[in-house]
Amino acid sequence: MKNEKKYTKFALVREMMESPDIIRRFKLKDTENAVEQIKQTGKVLFSGEGSSRMFPSKNAIAWAMKEGIGVELVTEGSYQAGEYDLRDFVVFAASNSGRTKETVSLFDKLRKAGHKRLFGLTANQNTKLQELSNQTFVISCGKEDAFAASKSCIEQALFYQSLLAQVQGKSFSDKLNALADAFEDALTVSVDPAITKAVAGAETVYLAGRNDGVAEELSVKVNEIVRKKSGFLEGTSYMHGAQEVMKTNDVVILIDPYKSELEKTKEVLIEEAGLKVFAVAAEETIFPTVKVKAVDGLTNYPLMAAGWNILVEAGISLSINLDEAERARKVGNVFMDQKAP
Predict the structure, then answer these.
(1) H-type alpha helices, 228-328
(2) Which residue, among 99, 144, 130, 135, has the nearest Cα to 117 in the 3D structure?
(3) Which terminus of the chain, N or C, has less C-beta within 10 A?
(4) Please, are residues 186 and 311 in contact by the beta-carbon 8 Å criterion?
């Protein structure tokens, strides 16, 4: 992805390219109450829908589990979360618009039940979610014109991860410049034309990786950017049955694959199933690899950026309008105030 007109004419690309500066200037503000509530309860649920939940929530949870911060962390979609007993949880809900129906409904239900630990994360002021929250944080990335979320997803993820770091008494502020540089490099690194051609020609693009939100979010971006069918294959699940239905014109992109399973992956996916397999990682693999720079505790962000890069290249090669879709909407399910007759 480069600063050429064929890329920058799309709002999606321009918004992706804003992400490094958003990372550089990122700061947590007024989070003392939220941090104290998390310390008191020791339980947090992150909710929301789509790109406002998958990477932001799961990235933060995976990092915190590795760090062993001692807080019970859960993420669910808003309707399923509304079926749980959340009395002892701090509840965070992310919605850029602040009017996502499922998310607003969850907070409305919890507020009516007397819940006092509701925190919203939005990109807009004076929203329905803000009205229902005990405190709302407004991210600084600004409005997105493309229907596919990009820069907001990155800032939401930084917010959640930095918040949990604060619970631990830590901060990422000294790493943000290095992270921004690594993110920009991943966005602009040249993608092997063979990868672009394979993704553009695939019937289904599978993203395989950890349950940390990166591969799962990218599988949605396949739908939104390349308009292809996709699948998220957690861990090594592609070796435990999924290969039975894969076709030779399908593609598998491995996100930071496990070193110990590279040869077995080659055997199962290439030699037996006849698929094209690529990788995105911080080091070279036995597969054609888009390499990113590692940043301690934060490498998931450049991994995401490299995935975006691949998909934008494929989408442009297919002459797709990256900013518009026929059926998908920026806010998939909008809350509407019910007016009395």
Answers:
(1) 262-265, 300-317
(2) 135
(3) C
(4) no
CATH number of this structure's domain 31-171: 3.40.50.10490
The three-state secondary structure class of 47 is strand
Tell me how crowded residue 258 is: count the other CB atoms within 10 A of its CB.
13
Tell me the backbone φ, ψ of residue 206, rounded to 5 degrees: -100, 135
| C-alpha gyration radius of the chain | 20
Domain edges within the chain: 31-171, 179-317
Dist CA 257 CA 159 (whole Å): 26
Structure tokens, 160: 């959640």
- The answer to whether residues 154 and 19 touch, using CB atoms and an 8 Å cutoff, is yes
Indicate the fold that domain 179-317 takes in CATH. Answer: Rossmann fold (3.40.50)
Three-state secondary structure along 152-220? HHHHHHHHHHHHHHHHCCCCCHHHHHHHHHHHHHHHHCCCCHHHHHHHHHCCEEEEEECCCCHHHHHHH
Measure the CA–CA gap between 62 and 332, rounded to whole angstroms: 27
131: CB partners within 8 A, 6+ apart: none
Confirm if 35 and 163 have CB atoms less than 8 A apart: yes
Q: Is pTM, for the whole model, over 0.85?
A: yes
pLDDT digits (tens, 9 = 90+) for 172-220: 999 999 999 999 999 999 999 999 999 999 999 999 999 999 999 999 9
Burial 226-244, CB ≥16 within 10 A → b, else e: bbbebbbbeebebbeebbe
CA gap 212, 300 in Å, rounded: 8
User: How far is the first Cα of the chain from the last one, in angstroms, to the nearest whole number?
Assistant: 52
**SS3 (DSSP) at 265:** helix
253: left (phi over 0), alpha (psi -120 to 50) or beta: beta
Q: Sheet holding 118-122: strands in order across? A: 72-75, 43-48, 90-94, 118-122, 135-138
Closest CA to 71 of 156, 136, 168, 161: 168
The pLDDT tens digits of the residues spanning 227-264 come to 999 999 999 999 898 888 899 999 999 999 999 999 99
